[in-house]
């Protein structure tokens, strides 16, 4: 029973780590897209 609980906790921690990594990558990609966006002045 304890082994299953440890396995479940490890799986949940791994899933959270992957989710955070994906979120961080998306945020960085959005930042780069904003920084390199071709902004044209309306003048």
Number of strands: 0
Q: Give me the Rg, rounded.
A: 20 Å
Cα distance spanning the termini: 69 Å
Low-pLDDT sequence parts: none
Number of helices: 1
The H-and-E topology, N to C, reads as H
Biggest pleated-sheet summary: none
Mean pLDDT level? 92
Helical coverage, percent range: over 70%
Shape: rod-shaped
The proportion of strand residues reads under 5%
SSE class: mainly alpha
List keywords for this structure.
1 helix, DLW39-like
Provide structural commentary.
- By secondary structure, the protein is mostly helical.
- 79% of the residues lie in helices and 0% in strands.
- The chain has one helix and no strands.
- It has one helix at 2-35.
- The protein is rod-shaped and about 60 Å long.
- InterPro entries: DLW39-like.
In short, what is this structure?
The chain has 43 residues and is an all-alpha fold. It is built from 1 helix and no strands. The longest helix has 34 residues.
Give the helix/strand layout:
Layout lengths: L1 H34 L8
């Amino acid at each position: 029973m304890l082994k299953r609980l440890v396995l479940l906790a490890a799986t949940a921690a791994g899933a959270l780590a992957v989710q955070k990594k994906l979120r961080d990558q998306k945020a960085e990609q959005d930042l780069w897209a904003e920084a390199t966006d071709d902004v044209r002045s309306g003048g």
